[in-house]
Amino acid sequence: MSGIRPTGFLHLGNYFGALRNYIRMQDEYECFFMVADLHSLTTHPDTKELKSNVQHVLSENIACGLDPDKVALYCQSHIYETSELYLYLNMLAYKGELEKTTTFKDKVRSQPENVNAGLLTYPVLQTADILLHRASLVPVGKDQEQHLEMSRTFTKRFNHRYGNVFPEPKAFNYGSELVRVPALDGSGKMSKSENQFATLYLSDDDELIRKKVIKAKTDTGPLAPGSSKPEAIGNIFLLLKLVSDPSVINKFETDYNNGSIRYGDMKKQLAEDMIKFITPIRQKAEAIRNDENYLKKVMEKGAEKARKSAKATMELVRQAMGLNY
Ligand code: TRP
Q: What's the 123 CA to ligand 1 centre distance in angstroms?
């Protein structure tokens, strides 16, 4: 089970960090993937663009290869049972531990005018999402580790107090394949909110991809043949490894090692290979996005599967809590 907030367009980091795992998991597990629109209300109370953002994320997920026939692909707000479980779990979550959460402290700093209770209990809602399906594997990136740790705490508390209803959820990834997708300006990883020009989005058009990649940070070239790569150059190679043929990577490795590399050429090649990778996804996502009927059907079908699983869990929960009178 996993969720993506509809608060920004998907980028290459989301693809290689999360989506690629989802796509592989769909053939090996029973999967629930959802658009976390309720979570987005903690930071984006204005709902004018919510529908179109939800449609955007959904269509990109499908364009990348998530199959709505194989997984339950749904929208969080369509499953009312989430709110019920969230309420019960809130009674087991303490103010002190919630206030210590890194993401909460970040938001207190970044939106001091809107430190709402939903923000404080964000990890409780996330726990409800997961436990609603009694899911044990949660494919998420490193930034979600603390939330998952809290989910385990709440799960243990529930089980301890009311009986063993839930497995303890664990962060999941296909180990060896955890890749870092560096930003183009050498400032860390690609991210939804930071420097948009350093991040490649799945919705970027060819010209924009070219512009961004050509501007990527490099230096004046290797000082001596065989010298080790400075970080910015290493980053370009990392990106090349994501989308280019091994023969292309080998060529530039060789050029680098004998000191004849031309970074302009390498970035041009990277831009073209990125375009080859991103364009089919972008076009497919656009087509899906324009088919509102199809998207509605996908959401309905996903919600149906999710509701069935949620209803069964809530029966167990009410029974375990003694609320079945
Ligand atoms: N909090 C997650 C994020 O910001 C999104 C999310 C919501 C989620 N519910 C979830 C992730 C349940 C995993 C499981 O990325």
A: 9
Instruction: Answer yes or no: are the C-beta atoms of 101 and 60 closer than 8 Å.
Output: no
Q: What is the value of pTM for the model shown?
A: 0.92
Tens-level pLDDT at each residue, the chain (325 residues): 999 999 888 999 999 988 999 999 999 999 999 999 999 999 999 999 999 999 999 999 999 999 999 999 999 999 999 999 999 999 999 999 999 999 999 999 999 999 999 999 999 999 999 999 999 999 998 889 999 999 999 999 999 999 999 999 999 988 765 678 999 988 788 876 667 889 999 999 999 999 999 999 988 877 777 788 999 999 999 999 999 999 999 999 999 999 899 999 999 999 999 999 999 999 999 999 999 999 999 999 999 999 999 999 999 999 999 999 9
Q: Residue 270 and residue 83: Cα distance in Å, rounded?
A: 46
**Residue 42 beta carbon below 6 angstroms from any ligand 1 atom:** no
Give the C-alpha distances (Å, rounded to integers) separating 10 from 65, 193, 301: 14, 11, 23
Angle, in degrees to the nearest 10, between helices 246-257 and 231-243 = 160
How many helices and strands (H and E) does the chain possess?
15, 5
For the domain spanning 204-285, the CATH number is: 1.10.240.10
**Pocket lining: 21 vs ligand 1, CB cutoff 6 Å:** no
- Give the residue extent of every domain in the chain: 2-180+292-321, 204-285
User: Which tokens is 289 given?
Assistant: 């996005």
Catalytic residues: 107, 189, 192
Distance of CA 24 to the CA centre of its chain: 15
Compute the distance from residue 195 Cα to the ligand 1 centre, in Å.
Answer: 22
What CATH number should be reported for the domain whose range is 2-180+292-321? Answer: 3.40.50.620
Contacts of residue 279, Cβ cutoff 8 Å, sequence gap at least 6: 206
